[in-house]
Amino acid sequence: MSEKRNIRDHKRRLLAAKYELRRKLYKALCKDPDLPSDMRDKHRYKLSKLPRNSSFARVRNRCISTGRPRSVYEFFRISRIVFRGLASRGPLMGIKKSSW
Amino acid sequence: MSGGGGLRSLISAAVTTGVAEAKGRIFGHILNPTGQRSPHKLLRQKLFGEKVAQWYPYDIKKDDPLVMARQEQDRLSKLEMLKRRGKGPPKKGQGRRAVKRSK
């Protein structure tokens, strides 16, 4: 079984992608000054009733091999520690250790 | 010369508004010179949920049997190495605390 937190994060990601359009529409409609204020209130309420895990603020970029939440390189999606090991062993294309 | 300056400023203002309108028409911008609150800024952004959902490249619920087998193999070989050096885990009843208690 892979990292528990990664599974949770994956769930959040799927939810966020699913509700993205709806969330955006509600947000836009409750910001629109042309609408009457009761409509805007209604949309704000609806926005607040969306599942909390479907928010993009809850998604965290995690290391795909160890699940480390911090210092994860977005390009490789792995943490600095895994990255260092892989880079020095050489399976990452175009990465070379250097010092100056 | 004050009248000429006023006229000039008027003309330049008209030109800038005209240019702004034309620019908006060409590039599909929405003019909002008074800075009113509008949902347009939110709506013009692209949807990125698809990309966010594809962070994990493998099926997160299922394990790759090859990878798991390799990990198990690594663990066993490491244990074997430790045992050969006499640094492996003690047998039951032979640990430090158990020895202390039996004295």
From TrEMBL, chain A:
Pfam families given in the database record: Ribosomal_S14
GO MF assignments: structural constituent of ribosome
Domain of life: Eukaryota
Cellular compartment(s): Mitochondrion
Record keywords: Mitochondrion, Ribonucleoprotein, Ribosomal protein
A cellular component annotation (GO) from this entry: ribosome
Alphabetical list of Gene3D superfamilies matching this protein: 1.10.287.1480
Protein's recorded name: Small ribosomal subunit protein uS14m
Annotated source species: Eucalyptus grandis (Flooded gum)
Automatic annotation (TrEMBL), chain B:
Key word Membrane present: no
Region (Disordered): 78-103
Keyword DNA damage: no
Major localisation: mitochondrion
Family annotation (InterPro entries): Ribosomal_mS33
Keywords, alphabetical: Mitochondrion, Ribonucleoprotein, Ribosomal protein
Basic residues composition-biased segments: 84-103
The organism of origin for this protein: Eucalyptus globulus (Tasmanian blue gum)
Protein name, UniProt field: Small ribosomal subunit protein mS33
Superkingdom assignment: Eukaryota
A GO-annotated cellular component: ribonucleoprotein complex
Subcellular location: Mitochondrion
Family: Belongs to the mitochondrion-specific ribosomal protein mS33 family.
